[in-house]
Amino acid sequence: MNITIIGAGNMARGIATRALAGGHTVHITAKDPAKASQLAEELRAQPAGAAVRAGDDSAVDTADIVVLAVPYTAAKELAAAYGARLSGRTLVDISNPVDASLDALLVAPGTSAAEEIARASAPGTHVVKAFNTTFATTLVAGRVDDTPLDVFIAGDDEAAREQVAELVASGGLHAVDVGALKHARELEGFQLLHMALQIRDGGYGWASTIKLITP
Amino acid sequence: MNITIIGAGNMARGIATRALAGGHTVHITAKDPAKASQLAEELRAQPAGAAVRAGDDSAVDTADIVVLAVPYTAAKELAAAYGARLSGRTLVDISNPVDASLDALLVAPGTSAAEEIARASAPGTHVVKAFNTTFATTLVAGRVDDTPLDVFIAGDDEAAREQVAELVASGGLHAVDVGALKHARELEGFQLLHMALQIRDGGYGWASTIKLITP
């Protein structure tokens, strides 16, 4: 698949790493083109790194999946700004709308960042929530304590969810489909707790992952 | 500690099993006294099973921790009915306020079963959310795939949270303190997804557990 990642930060690095491992072509575009080029150059050192490109945002128009690897507010603005260019496309929201103290969500009760981004998007944009519970460094490794990461996926379009699940699985991770986009509420909520646990005394230092353990 | 469990169903069995393993005294009381006696008799076959008693609800008045091992609506009614008898005591709410289709929560956005139970309780009752993400059979075993269960704990009284964490740890489980009682919202929310995943095609059959994996 053609995966276009908007953003060139740590989460872009993590998701690009897994997408390359899965054999996909990755386009990176960012507000600061130098940052996008620098990340692409770094990723080229990886196995399958030849399939990464940096450039302008024209790759959005040929992407199978567009990933908004930016914070919530920027993601919502981008979804609105791209408008009809994203119609019919799978748009992945990875954001966590949390306050600076990591004690509360910035979105109102009864909604989620993913739903707000969907509301800001043009009709026919298939918004999928994914990768919001996986920290950047764990994505680069793909594993924590030798366990493949769970990636929880929510979205109203089943084919779009399946497409993201394919990206996840091809990159060596475990996809967990939780259904409709409204369930992004519960994914974002639990991740608030998970984030808060990173910075406490004896916290996990952004190195833990949420996993459903089965017998 | 003296642990009084109200209810004699599967969750009562699971929590009693861990409490006995932790060396605590367990009192079981239930609407149907025969059911309480039967569960106590069954538990007596366990190691440390000598420390279990069934009887009337007078054990509520001498308990260090009272566990409401009943569904949400019954738990709220019991909290209100016991009123001042629970004042100053640690009251554990384990409930999951989910609809029959496991697709939505029964409590309004911006609250939780635990907060509603606290509102129904007499002043000074220290309501703690715990054990809502651990299925009954996993509690009996204490582990899934040889991994000790995480038990997420939320409550506004720090000493009460620590008391529940002590119960959890003594029973061989891993306590994860997530802070204020309002964070029960996120625990109940994520458990809605976890429950829905049990009954799907290829579902986990009530045998999985939510774990934060660390390096």
From TrEMBL, chains A, B:
UniProt entry tagged with the keyword Signal: no
Pfam families cross-referenced by the UniProt entry: F420_oxidored
Keywords: Oxidoreductase
Highest taxon in the source lineage: Bacteria
Domain Pyrroline-5-carboxylate reductase catalytic N-terminal: 3-97
InterPro entries, per database record: NAD(P)-bd_dom_sf (IPR036291), P5C_Rdtase_cat_N (IPR028939), STEAP_metalloreductase (IPR051267)
Protein name, entry field: NAD(P)-binding domain-containing protein
Lineage: Bacteria, Bacillati, Actinomycetota, Actinomycetes, Kitasatosporales
